Fold this protein.
Amino acid sequence: MNAIHDHRTSRQAKTERPPFQVSFEFFPPKTDVMEERFWDSIGKLAPLHPRFVSVTYGAGGSTRERTLRMVSRIKSETGVDAAAHLTCVGATRDEVDSVVKGYREAGITRIVALRGDPPEGVGKPFTPHPDGYRSSAELVAGIRKLGNFDISVAAYPEKHPQSPDWDADIDNLKRKFDAGANRAITQMFFDNDDYFRFVERARKAGVTASIVPGIQPIHSFRQISGFAARCGASIPAWLAERFEGLEEEPETHALVASAVAAEQVLELVDAGVTEFHFYTLNRSNLVLALARLLGVRPD
């Protein structure tokens, strides 16, 4: 067989490849042991100079203070830009606005603005607070009024579970951009075709901004499938098959997980994607390996 010259972007020399932008998502740790792992992971990922590191925010603002503390500390100790998540669940506009002002005073200029999940959990119907922001588009507009923030919003490659149809879903995304969002970050997905179709729908509707794929490395297949089911992300049959019977085989599970994530990321690179957002679950090992595959490495 004749060797063909490989035109895959993922295999081009560093000088020929486009520069990749990465961002990492963490959640506020609840215990001292978890906090130690959190800072250990941040310490390992900060030298990769991500565009930003984001810290999530519990339902109903349960982790609000902790999120602000973590984000401020990441910024001051590592110099990496940090983004705070913000939701409008169970809070009045004034309460949300005061959180935004707190971020502004702490020098936090990036916000990931989400409608948020109701306290009953993911997948339950959302009821806006009578005096609150009613949607993420309203939340984005509210943040815009309060300062010059860089705002990321969510996108759903398999459609938001509560969107009646695709038109409504894309229309909602468009409203978020019209309100002043800078980019969208997708919920996790495991079939890249879902992402490509979603981007195509958005572009047809006139959305020109970045739609950054949110990549979820699978640290525990059981845990991720449970979460996926609740948030409307599907697990393709071929993926489930790869992890079948590996619950008691942690080493093989980890190797399969890294192969699956690598395959997903490199396929996106070959299709022209240059920005990635990684859901770290506060662990650094798989994400470090994926960043290296993109040629993103510490100085």
